[in-house]
């Protein structure tokens, strides 16, 4: 779609004052998908030359905001990390064409802050930390699970940039379980639940997304019972935080969120499949 209110575009490497109507341009798959009448100038990140994926000396993985979904999926197929299958599972949750995969970015999906954003699910589940860069060069970090505050709301100040997300080595070594459900065969995720089991201390984390307005990552020092897990989810997620749109009513999303959470608990603890689960 043409954005007929845009009067200029500049590269992000050139430092200029941020002004009203500016917006960061990554892959542009959302930006050019619908009218943006409030925008006047785009600040292009595509030529910053950031390495898409970087292994650090401590074993963590830094994912640049400009890393595309295609690049992340390819990395997941090659990586020997225990959590590697989760990368492509979350990429597949886009249900998007190869053209979108080759343009859409990890950072863009996070910054859109849509409940069904699978990069939000991935980075929150693997205990990621977002590196944010202000216009004056100051940086700060915020957990990926806290970066998205609600539908379309994120922890970004005016002109602030999501530079990268870092996944710790401990999380990459976890066994994972993935569950996703939609009202339609090729529809948007209505509930997406990820479980991670830490082989070092036996702790279990269950992350509920898509069914909720923001990600909820619940950590248990030891795998909980079914009743404990259910109570923890209900205590963490208020009635107003179960998402409500054409892709699912809040009551149904809560039911599926609880069901999928129990499925991942059972898979990771070896307690057998949930009755009636497929």
UniProtKB/TrEMBL annotation:
Task: Supply the SUPFAM superfamilies for this chain.
Answer: CO dehydrogenase flavoprotein C-terminal domain-like, FAD-binding/transporter-associated domain-like
Which superkingdom heads the taxonomic lineage of this protein's source?
Bacteria
Gene3D superfamilies xref list: 3.30.465.10
Q: Which InterPro entries match?
A: CO_DH_flav_C_dom_sf (IPR036683), Diverse_Substr_Oxidored (IPR051312), FAD-bd_PCMH (IPR016166), FAD-bd_PCMH-like_sf (IPR036318), FAD-bd_PCMH_sub2 (IPR016169), Mopterin_DH_FAD-bd (IPR002346)
Entry's Pfam families?
FAD_binding_5
Domain FAD-binding PCMH-type residue range list = 1-172
Q: PANTHER family under this entry?
A: XANTHINE DEHYDROGENASE FAD-BINDING SUBUNIT XDHB-RELATED, XANTHINE DEHYDROGENASE SUBUNIT C-RELATED
What is the name attached to this protein's record? FAD binding domain-containing protein
Q: Which organism is it from?
A: Streptomyces zhihengii
């Amino acid at each position: 779609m043409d954005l007929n209110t845009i009067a200029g575009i500049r590269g992000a490497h050139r430092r200029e004052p941020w002004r009203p109507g500016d917006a960061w341009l990554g892959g542009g798959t959302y930006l050019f998908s619908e009218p943006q009448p409030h925008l006047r100038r785009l600040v292009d990140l595509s030529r910053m030359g950031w390495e898409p994926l970087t292994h650090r000396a401590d074993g963590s993985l830094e994912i640049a905001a400009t890393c595309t979904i295609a690049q992340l999926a390819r990395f997941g197929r090659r990586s020997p990390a225990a959590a590697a299958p989760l990368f492509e599972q979350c990429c597949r949750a886009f249900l998007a064409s190869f053209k979108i995969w080759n343009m859409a970015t990890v950072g863009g999906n996070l910054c859109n802050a849509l409940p069904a954003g699978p990069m939000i699910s991935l980075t929150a589940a693997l205990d990621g930390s977002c590196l944010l860069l202000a216009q004056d060069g100051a940086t700060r970090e915020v957990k990926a699970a806290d970066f998205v505050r609600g539908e379309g709301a994120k922890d970004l100040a005016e002109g602030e940039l999501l530079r990268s997300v870092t996944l710790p080595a401990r999380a990459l070594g976890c066994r994972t379980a993935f569950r996703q459900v939609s009202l339609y065969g090729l529809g948007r995720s209505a509930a997406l639940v990820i479980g991670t089991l830490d082989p070092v201390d036996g702790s279990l984390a269950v992350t509920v997304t898509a069914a909720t307005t923001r990600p909820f990552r619940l950590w248990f020092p030891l795998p909980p019972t079914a009743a404990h897990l259910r109570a923890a989810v209900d205590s963490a997620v208020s009635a107003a935080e179960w998402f409500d749109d054409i892709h699912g009513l809040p009551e149904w999303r809560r039911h599926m969120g609880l069901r999928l959470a129990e499925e991942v608990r059972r898979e990771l603890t070896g307690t057998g499949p949930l009755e009636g689960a497929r």
